[in-house]
Amino acid sequence: MTDPQLSKPEIDFPQGPAPTDLQIEDIVVGEGAEAQPGANVEVHYVGVEYDTGEEFDSSWNRGQTIEFPLQGLIAGWQEGIPGMRVGGRRKLTIPPALAYGEAGAGHRLSGKTLIFVIDLLGVS
């Protein structure tokens, strides 16, 4: 098995209707420190739109990880990352209410269900 932190994840095009609740799926379970609510996290991630499969953001494309406090992120990340362990890779499918709000909320991703694959590299 390859180390998840060495390669950008591929996200398969989803089947069926978008879920209305946050979906959390561990692809790789890490063995390091556990992320707590409100922690600072260092991650690599890819985000795609559920309906189109179109990638809208990726730290991999910028060639560097990103570090930030969970409380500054969308609710889907605030709820979906705690409990994850360093070294893990997790897929979050996030409905609009836990992402950028319903359609017309003013963000280009408002009204969209989003899929993120996140590699947790560090917590503090």
How would you describe this structure in keywords?
124 residues, globular, PPIase_dom_sf, 2 helices, mainly beta, Chitinase A, domain 3, 8% helix, peptidyl-prolyl cis-trans isomerase activity, EC 5.2.1.8, Peptidyl-prolyl cis-trans isomerase
Named at the architecture level, the CATH assignment is Roll
Provide the β-strand percentage band. 25-35%
What is the count of structural domains? 1
What is the mean predicted local confidence, pLDDT? 93
Please state the structural category. mainly beta
Determine the oligomeric state from the structure.
single chain
CATH fold descriptor:
Chitinase A, domain 3
The end-to-end distance, rounded to whole angstroms, is 27 Å
Give the C-alpha Rg.
Answer: 14 Å
Helix % is under 10%
What is the CATH domain class? Alpha Beta
Catalytic activity: [protein]-peptidylproline (omega=180) = [protein]-peptidylproline (omega=0)
GO molecular function, one term: peptidyl-prolyl cis-trans isomerase activity
Keywords: Isomerase, Rotamase
Family: Belongs to the FKBP-type PPIase family.
